[in-house]
Amino acid sequence: MFNLIKNNIIQFDRLLIEKYYVLDLDETDAIILIRLNDLLKRGERLFSVRAVASSMKIDESECGKRIVELVKRGFIALELSGKDAKEIFSLDETYRRLAYLLEDSEAKANDAEINEKIKYAVRLLESELKKTLSPIELEIVSRWYIEKKYDHRKIEEAILKSLKNKYRSVNYIDRLLAKEEKPAPKIARPKEGERIQDLFKKVYVKSK
Question: How far, CA to CA in Å, does 15 sit from each of 4, 84, 113, 179?
Answer without folding.
Answer: 12, 34, 23, 45
